[in-house]
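Reopening closed ticket. The problem is back. First fold of the pair:
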Amino acid sequence: MKLESAGMEVGRARDAAATAARTPRYEEIYRELVNDIRDGRYPVGGKLPPELELCTTFAASRHTVREAVRRLTEQGLIARRAGAGTMVLRRTRSGGFTQRISALPDLLAYVKSAKLEVLEARDIKASAQEAGLLRCRRGQAWHRLVALKHLRGARKPVAYVLAYVHRDHPALRGVLDRRGVELHDFIEARIGERIVTVEQELSAKPMGKEANALGLAPGYAGFVIARRYLAASGTTVLVTSTIFPYDRMRYSMSLKLA
């Protein structure tokens, strides 16, 4: 019995070592910081240590620490404040997703962190409702993508997405149709132009078929973000309409006087 027990302990140790070997370093740091915040080492309203101090504490690179901190931000535990450091907002992870935008680079950084699970991709002629979103005439040809949005670290899809590419941008269409596409792939590199303007509209509505795709009951309250991505030439590169369940999304924006 003792030999059997010892063998089981060795097996558990090997399993633990194998699991640890598969866990990225940034994930380990993220989990430790989550525990520290939960246990009150970094209290709500207080500050997280500076990046260089965290690098020293965890003997990790700045890139690794930044990834861990980014995950804390996505979970709504912390927020970076210009000139004030990184503030602790809550002790436990929220069930939803917090998006904080203060400038266009923040928005594009968020776009880079998201991936799409493609449900449908096909050519369409804009309906009357879509023409209003796309600011085009009814019946104009577009390529439409229907997808679920996933963020790193989130167990469930956070949103239902409609994305439209004008037929004048066939290079984007090929990227849209790939499963697991990273959103930023079709922003700038594929068209050879910089995105200089993003027009955004916020609204609310009860969800219909979107709720079914997200595993929710029809009529569930939704928060809609419509965006139009414009290149330096003034052309509309991409139009998206993203609907979040009301309890999986919080939106925060800071504005400064020039």
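Second fold of the pair, where the issue appears:
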Amino acid sequence: MFFLHINAPAVRNNIITIRTRTKNKFCAVVKANAYGHGLELCKYIDDLVDCYAVAWSCEAEALCNYTSKDIYVLNSDYDIGKKNIIYSAATKKDLLHKRICVKINTGMNRNGIYPQEFNDFIARRPLYTEIESVYTHFCSVEYAKKQFEAFDTLNFPVKHCCASNCMVLPTKYFKDMVRVGLAMYGYDYSLSPCMSVKAAISAVLSVKKGEHIGYGNFLAPVDMKIAVLEAGYADGLRRCENFFEVGGTVCKTVGSICMDVCMVDVSECEFVPKQAIFIGDRLKIDDVANRYGTIPYEVLTAFNGRNRRMYATD
């Protein structure tokens, strides 16, 4: 079990920085348990945001425990019967929701209707269905210009297309609202990262050369001092070589990563504290992502429900 220390004031400052640039409505994207930070974070930022976005209806149901503001459900899903939910509409059945935002496929080819289909599509809706907005999603900053030109041909009062890329795209792309995920948490565009990740050290052992460490066939190459950390692959740690900061020294894991624990070589540490740092001031989220051959999104969302989240408020 990791201990996730989340700095709510850092998130608030990131939101203020982004809003200062965009000067329009701010939609906080909190899908995948707020990118691993926990939906509880929303109660610390609710006064700064206009609305929220999640991927699925079950996430919207959970989010309603923390806000009464509008919530966008960005995938076609079931209706939870609450007035503050706005459902993404990309198929005929989606038009049956009372409040919808129409998804436009401008080139990402993930879901949505084509711009030229828009008028015919909305003409099929029941009289009770309110179209709150139309939106699209850019597949990359480099391709955004072409997508924006296709999106901007639509004539509708409320439109939105920018995500965290609003920090670098031209201001004309901002339209009526930005939907911000990763940048809000501070992991992009020189903003302030808001989370450090630590694991408790449950034991420090002396292991002789040739003795096993963990599952499999790993044998200590020399006499070693190892620390047993209470975090494993069930907590979001990959089954590969990982690094932790232990008492100011960067140490690597030895042996196989277990489901609930891992072992770290602390032979060079002068002092072994009660916790080891996985992500912090020295070991960054990008370091972990690069080592795993992936992106920060995947690292963050792998921190599942059994990890313990603690929110700093000042």
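Update: turned out to be a display glitch only; the data is intact. The chain has a mean pLDDT of 96. The longest helix spans residues 8-22. Please close again.
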